[in-house]
Amino acid sequence: MPPALHQLPVYAPGSRRLHVVIETPKGSRNKLAFDPELGFFKLMGVLPEGSSFPYDFGFVPSTLADDGDPLDVLLLMDAATYPGVVVEARLIGVLEAEQPEDGQPQRNDRLLAVAAESRLHRHLHDLGDLTPQLLHEIEHFFHSYNEAKGQPFRIVRRSGKKRAEELVHKAAAQAQP
Fold first, then answer.
1. What is the CATH number of the domain that holds 91?
2. Which of 7, 15, 36, 142 is deepest in the core (most CB within 10 A)?
3. Chain centroid offset of residue 167 CA
4. Predicted local distance difference test score (pLDDT) of residue 150
5. Whole-angstrom Cα distance, residue 44 to residue 151?
């Protein structure tokens, strides 16, 4: 039997392409999340009218971030896909962020990646390749998404590909039994 989505390898075999499991498609107001106990996707919330995910959103399997979940990924690609699709991607950076948990700051980083087969975004290789406007809009989405849930969200720093890769290695090591 093949592994469950959350247990797939971090990287595609024989490459440095990251596996990203899509949970919420670009353009969706519904926030979906994979529930490993059920083996299915659950509706976790609905964004306010006029709001939607700017790109596909998902996670890196076989990782455990500081918030106790797999690492989150915002995936830039040419068109929306579907929950449960596994996309090979390359990291371009990370928004290192904090959210309060029980009154204490909790890290909840957002990796930024580009689908390996993307045509529109093939020129993006590091965070500095994003236009300042696009980076601002991505950050604004995360702020407004969390604000709508009544949760503060603070970006601690923007970091490039190298730091994003360090965070993936750390989270993969934390996920090991």
1. 3.90.80.10
2. 142
3. 12
4. 87
5. 15
> pLDDT tens-digit profile of 61-91?
999 999 999 999 999 999 999 999 999 999 9
Distance between terminal CA atoms of the chain? 20
Segment 2-61, tens digit of pLDDT: 778 999 999 999 999 999 999 999 999 999 999 999 999 999 999 999 999 999 999 999
Distance between CA 67 and CA 82 in Å, rounded? 25
Rounded Cα distance between 173 and 95, Å, is 20
Residue 117 domain-assigned?
yes
- The span from the CA of 177 to the CA of 172, in Å, is 10
* Mean residue pLDDT across the chain: 95
Rounded CA-CA distance 20/22 in Å is 6
> Residue 164 in contact with residue 111, Cβ under 8 Å?
yes
Enter the pTM of the model. Answer: 0.95
Structural domain includes residue 175 = no
Average pLDDT over residues 139-144: 95
Residue written as token pair 């498609």 = 25
3-state secondary structure of 103: coil
- Residue 152 and residue 99 in contact, taking contact as beta carbons nearer than 8 Å: yes
What range does the domain containing 72 cover?
Answer: 5-170
Residue 176 forms part of a structural domain: no
Q: Tell me how many domains the chain contains.
A: 1
